[in-house]
Amino acid sequence: MNEEQLQAKCTQWFWNNYPAQRRMLFHVQNNANSAIQGSRYKAIGVVSGVSDLVWVLYGKVIFIELKININTQTANQIDFENKVVQREHEYVILNSFEDFKNFIKSNILILQNKF
Q: What's the fold here for domain 3-114?
């Protein structure tokens, strides 16, 4: 399974299991398929290094990066993580579908206890 397949599996599971949270977990497109598309993306504000997923909760934003096997963060991803953390948001790196499910479930429990 590659990262794109992992991301699809995670987002589909989330959509199907947490209908009240739909549209609050989303992907920010930042990978162009061509130089022309890359130029267009850059012109409209797309930047490299942002997390794979963004999850908006009540009073909290979590940035989720998915990495499998030996994949590591790029310099731009590390820079983005540092800036997110400096702004007191949460940034997590998850390595598997099980990690994703467990992370979501634990945060949903926190949400349920707050509201």
A: Trna Endonuclease; Chain: A, domain 1 (3.40.1350)
